[in-house]
Design brief:
about 10% strand; two-stranded antiparallel ribbon; mainly alpha
Amino acid sequence: MEVKRITVWVTGPVARGLENHIAKARAAEKAWIAAEVMKGRDKRDVRKEALGLRPERWPVQDVLVTRAVERRLGREDLAGPWKPLTPPEETRMRLAGRWPGPDVTGLVAERQFGLPADLLKRLRTASWRVSEEWLRLLEEEDLIGRPLDGRERERRDELAAHLMPPPRIVREALAAPFALMWKPLAKANPSGEQGNDIV
């Protein structure tokens, strides 16, 4: 599966939530490995098994973000179906940079997330299709790429409030309740015992 990276500025609570999750996941995996080795199993075999269990038992940051984005794209306002992006639209989405509008407050940390290439394509397609009419209006009213007076800035912000750039969608996905928590399926570890999972 091809993975592509997306850079997103996130709020303090999201940044802390991701860091806490990573720390808990590492600690839980380490504890499980130690417990299995204490039972007499070969450490190398246990580590290999842990690697296979990681996506469900102790998911890394990108797994949580992928699942959160998938859920967000499944909601009615972004679910589509959408007409595929044309090659010029794909190029424009890849080179979009900062979208027009006021600064988003409370963003304190820049994070890179690895998403499956097909999910990133869905994200960009939904983003463009939801936003294209508002971008067209911004361009028609000449509210992009030049200094604006107070009234023009208000109008730009009014139209830009409807835009859904990919980072906004990712931030909404991560701000959803329980997006940064992962409770594995009630399958315990291979010995059938519960414990050392992220909840």
